[in-house]
Amino acid sequence: MINVAVCGANGKMGKEVCSAVENDSQMTLCAKIDLYSDDCYKTIEDAKNNSKIDVLVDFTQPDSIFENAKYCLNNGIKIVIGTTGLSDNQIEELKILSKKNDVGCFIAPNFSTGAVLMMKFAQQTAKYFDNAEIIEFHHNQKKDAPSGTAIKTALMMSEVKNNFKNGNCPEKETVKGSRGGNSYSDIQIHSVRMPGYMASQEVIFGSMGQTFTLRHDSVDRKCYMPGVLMAVRHVSDKNDFVYGLDKIME
Q1: pTM for the complete prediction?
Q2: CA distance between the termini of the chain
Q3: Which entry of 32, 48, 142, 161 is annotated as an active-site residue?
C-alpha cells in the first residue's frame, strides 16, 4: 500500500484527491493537511511526526508550494505537485534538490489526460505553423496567471521552434496588456478570469490562408484524478524528477 498525505485537503482539488486516494485499492490516505481546517494537521511537519508518509500530494497556494516542496525533499517525503505558480528558477532548484537527496518529485501543470494530449498535439502542430498564440480560461478565484498549463504548452512548443511571430508588424499597445504576455519563443498568452469557467485552453495556429485551433475544456475536477493517481504510483516506485504528466504518457 502507498501511504498518501494530501496538503490542501479541504480545498476543492484537495477534497477530490482525498476521495480518489480513499477509493484506490493500492493507496491509503494517511494524513490530511490543511492550515484552515480543525480536523486536519496544520503543517506537513505535524503530519510527518504522526504518520508514515510515502507520497505527499500538494494542491495548496502559489505562495506556499515552494517551501512545502523544499521541506518534503529535505525530509525524505516524495511529492506530487499540482499547485501552479512555480517559477522556472524554483522548478530548477527543486530538480537539483530532488536529485541531491534522491527523493522523487513530480510536478504537473495539469493532471487531465485530455489537457496533456492537447499540449502534445500543440507541440506536434508547432512544426507546421509559424504563428501561434494561447488563450486560457479559468474561474476568477485562480490566483496565478497565466496558468501552469499555458506556460507548459508554450515551453513544449518552443522546443521545436524559436519564433511564433513570423511576419508580425511592429506593435504598439494603446491599452496596456491587450496583447497578453510574451512567453517562450514569442508565444503570446492571454488569461481570462471569469465566473462560469473551470479550466479551458485554446492554442491557435495561423499561416497564409488558414487557422487551426486546439481546445480542451475541463468541466469537473474528477477529470484530474486519474492523472494524479498515475503520478502517485510513478513517484512511489521511482526517485526521479518529472515535470509534466506527458513524460509518463508516452
Answers
A1: 0.80
A2: 26
A3: 142
